[in-house]
Each structure stands twice: as C-alpha cells, then as structure tokens.
Amino acid sequence: MFQAFFNGLSGMLSFSRNLDTVSNNISNMNTPGFRGADTFYKSLSGGEQDAGTGTQISGLGYRFTSGDIRQTGNATDVAISGQGFFTLLKEGNSYYSRAGQFAFNNDGILTDSVSGASVAAIDSKGNIGEFDISKLRVRAPKETTKVSLSGNLSSGATTHEVSGITVFNKLGEEVNLTLKFTKSTTDSSEWSVSVINNSASDAVLSTSNIKFGADGTPLAGQSSFSVAVPDSMGGTASVSFNLGDAGSFGQSTSTDTGTTSTLSGAVQDGSAVASLRSIDFKSDGSLSLTYTNGETQTGPALALAHFKDESVLRLAGGSLFEATSQSGMVIGKAGTGSLGTIQGKSIELSNVDLSREFADMIVIQRGYQASSRLLNVSNQLLEQLYESTRGR
C-alpha cells in the first residue's frame, strides 16, 4: 500500500519532467536548427518478487530529422539540404549545428550569430580552419599589359587618332591615352605612332613606327610597339599595343578608304583596386565573391560533419552538439560522400512537429491524472486502515 503511494508519486514526477521537455520543444518550434527531444522512462524494480518501485526518467533522445528550409535573402544564411552538420570552433573545442545563421565579424571571420563561435572551413587537402575572408575583401590592382588595335588605318589618310584608351598602371590608377598616327612622307606604308598621356597634361610617352605590307596587312617585326605607363609613385608599367599577326587580315589593315579610318583600341586586361560587392554560397559550400570591378573569385568552403550514429551526440546548449568517441564522425565538403548540399540565403527551421507535441501533452496529462488518482486511492486506503485500528 505504501509502495503504491510512492509509485504514483514517481509517476507524477516523471510526467511533469516529460511535460518540461514538450514545453521546451514547443517554445523552440521557430528556433533555427533546433532539434526536438523525447523523454524516455525506465521502470524501477527491487527484485524478482517485487511488483515494482515506480518509474524514473532515463534520459533524453533528440530527433535528427531535417526541418523545413526557409529563404531569408540574407547572403550569410545557409541551410543543409540532406545530411550533415555545420562545424563550429570555439575556445579550442568543436561543436556541430544545423542552424546556419552566420555573419562575418570585423576581422572577416564567419561566425555563428547566436553562440559567437567561428564557422569552420575545409581546404582542398582536408585541413580544417576558420572561415576567413580577411584577405579577400579587397582585390589588388592589376596593371594593363595588352591593348589590341583593330580596324582599318586608311592608306589614303595622313593622320588618325585613337582616343579613349584607359589603361591601369601598377598602382591601379587609371591612365587615359590617345594614339596619334602620322603617315610617313617618304614611305606610304609606314606610320609614326605617338602615345599621349591625357592624364598628365597630354605628355607624349613614346613615339614608335609601324608598317604594313603591300597587301595592307601588318609586317612582321613592325606590327606592335610598347609604352611605359607611369604611376604617381614614380613607377612604370609596360603596355604592349598589337596590330595583329603579320600577313593576317583578321585584326588590323591599311587599305585605301579615303580619309576615313576605323582603327580603334581595346584594352585586354588590367583593373583598379576593387572592393567586395557581394557574396553567394554555392551548393558545394564554397563562397563566391564578386568585386566592384565585375571580377569574381572563389573563397573558402564550409566544413560539414557527418556522424554514423547521431543518437550519441551530446547537447552542448541551444542548437549546438558535441561529438563523442562513439559518434563515428567524418568531416568533408558539401555534396561529397553522404553529405548534403548547401542552400544559400536560407535557414533550416526546427524539426518540432506541433501535432505530435499536442498528442504527447494529452498522454502526459492522462498519465499525470492517473498517477494523482493512485495517490488519492492509496490515501483513502490508509485512512480506512487508521480508522479500523481505532475500532470505528
């Protein structure tokens, strides 16, 4: 009789703890990456001839099914479609999460917005480190080395100018050039080319000679010239101007079209200092960076962890889990092996099923009521016993 009283009490305590778990699931139903939990019971027994001594909570089990993925439009929000966990680094420890609410700090390190832990990246050799773009936020300038000249330089004209050629020096500074072509008075196939720096009081940087053959195509050895383009620090960059292959009509020619020439210049390379304009996570977890000059570059890639047995993961707090020696962890790049792919500008919501939680609450409520009723019945029997001993 006394044992029934304590059995009912243990049932009430266990059901109340289970209700704590359910309430925590419901309160986190909109928490990104949250994994719902289940409470497990175990029976207490004193021996083979014992009817039982009640119940207690044996522990919690976490549900590792995927939650719904929702688009956010935030470039640093990422979600995993499939298996795997994001790897986070903090104070020498590694943590794992499905919540991809990330942001870059002032040092260019990708961090978890909630815990502040650094997000891990994996390189081509499988090495793990912080997801760092500090050296990629600004793109160094590239000097111009090639300018292609194409069109017709009329042999019937005496002069021609090609203006609006913008090249970049070693410092990434723009230098505006004009090419002035002057036909030789002694050789109708030869032209003098003066390169004028419009960015420095129209100073003449160089004067060279070019020559065409009788068929109007560039001559070998005289179809190109170079000029040293200065910068504000006193340095120079060599820029080559090319008319095309000798004997070829494919690029530039010199035939008689009257006084009208169509020769123009096209800069082939070079760029100024460029800052980061936008970022985008690809399906393999790599970061694509786009700069203000239109160039793109591939940055680090997210390191994803896969566990053979997710049930042995230990909750470290919030949506973070810790690995145990029995978890069978493998770290790799998204889309490789059994790892899922990355969806950029999205986050994974919790995997809490509200209908399931309501059903669990009903079971808990009935179990708590039954355990409470057991206490009442045991109490009534005890009262009856006491009354009997008083001779009533």
Would you summarize the structure shown here?
The protein is of the alpha+beta class and 392 residues long.
- Categorize the overall geometry: rod-shaped
Largest sheet: 9 strands, antiparallel
How much helical structure, as a percent, in the residues?
Answer: 10-25%
The whole-number mean of residue pLDDT values reads 92
The rounded Rg comes to 38 Å
Q: What fraction strand?
A: 35-45%
Series of secondary-structure elements, N-terminal to C-terminal: HEEEEEEEEEEEEEEEEEEEEEEEEEEEEH
Distance linking N and C termini: 21 Å
Total strand count, please? 28
How large is the count of helical segments? 2
Structural category: alpha+beta
Low-confidence stretches: none
Description:
This protein starts with a helix and ends with a helix. The mean pLDDT is 92. The protein is an alpha+beta fold. The strands form eight sheets. Strands 5, 6, 9, 10, 11, 21, 22, 23 and 26 form a nine-stranded antiparallel β-sheet that branches. Strands 12, 17, 18, 19 and 20 form a five-stranded mixed β-sheet that branches. A four-stranded antiparallel β-sheet has the order 13-14-15-16, with no helix packed on it. The chain contains two helices and 28 strands. 16% of the residues lie in helices and 40% in strands.
Q: Topology of this structure?
A:
Elements: H1 2-27, E1 37-43, E2 55-62, E3 69-71, E4 78-81, E5 85-90, E6 93-97, E7 102-104, E8 110-112, E9 118-122, E10 128-130, E11 138-139, E12 146-152, E13 159-168, E14 174-183, E15 190-197, E16 203-211, E17 224-230, E18 236-242, E19 252-253, E20 264-267, E21 274-281, E22 286-291, E23 296-307, E24 314-317, E25 320-322, E26 329-333, E27 341-344, E28 346-348, H2 354-389
Parallel strand pairs: 12-18, 12-19
Antiparallel strand pairs: 1-2, 3-28, 4-27, 5-6, 5-9, 5-23, 7-8, 9-10, 9-23, 11-21, 12-20, 13-14, 14-15, 15-16, 17-18, 21-22, 22-23, 23-26, 24-25
Helix pairs in contact: 1-2
